[in-house]
Amino acid sequence: MKQGKSNAMLHAGLIDSLSPMRTMRQMLDTMDRLFEDAMTMPGGTTEVRSPWDVIEDDNEIKMRFDMPGLSRDDVKVSIEDRILVIKGEHKSEENGENNNNWGKRSISSYNSRIKLPDNCEINKIKAELKNGVLYVNVPKVKVERKVIDVQIE
């Protein structure tokens, strides 16, 4: 009988409007709806903008990385064995000035590694951070492919 009573109490907790389980479920449902609403554009189309983008043409590869809250001193761009390495980190803390003694803490971190193709001029790569967006331009060298016909015997 005890087990039946505990099951009834558990189910009552899910129905009770003051139950912590119900409150958590409502919060998760609300977060799901907000996320879905943020991704759905008018007309029912879904558009998600990634925090990075790459455009390539015959002369160069252009990359864009969103890095909100990071300054030039917070970001490091390097090349390691033909791999473009982009790291960024910013930490800030403020003591609580209100009477609740809670301080503000903000941490922004970014780490990405991208293998570059063989036709890139790695010594001429340029990077610029403007308004929280890192732009990286990777010049490409024209590689002339030499075709040699091989005699079949």
Describe the protein's architecture and organization.
This protein has two helices and seven strands. The protein is α+β, with helices and mostly antiparallel strands and 153 residues long. The protein has a four-stranded antiparallel β-sheet with strand order 1-2-7-6, with no helix packed on it. The protein has a three-stranded antiparallel β-sheet with strand order 3-4-5, with no helix packed on it. The longest helix has 20 residues, at 20-39. 7% of the residues are buried. The model is unreliable at 1-14 (pLDDT under 50).
Question: Which tags fit this structure?
Answer:
153 residues, alpha+beta, four-stranded antiparallel β-sheet, three-stranded antiparallel β-sheet, 2 helices, elongated, disordered N terminus, HSP20-like_chaperone, HSP21-like, stress response, A-crystallin/Hsp20_dom, SHSP domain-containing protein
Rg is: 27 Å
Q: Which class of secondary structure composition applies to the elements?
A: alpha+beta
Helix content: 10-25%
* Beta-strand share of residues: 35-45%
Helix and strand succession? HHEEEEEEE
Note the overall shape. elongated
Largest sheet: 4 strands, antiparallel
Q: What do the pLDDT scores average to?
A: 76
Low-pLDDT ranges: 1-14
Strand order of the largest sheet: 1-2-7-6
Tell me how many strands there are. 7
Counted by DSSP, the helix tally is: 2
Intertermini distance:
90 Å
Give me the oligomer status: single chain
InterPro entries: A-crystallin/Hsp20_dom (IPR002068), HSP20-like_chaperone (IPR008978), HSP21-like (IPR044587)
Domain SHSP: 43-153
Family: Belongs to the small heat shock protein (HSP20) family.
Pfam families: HSP20 (PF00011)
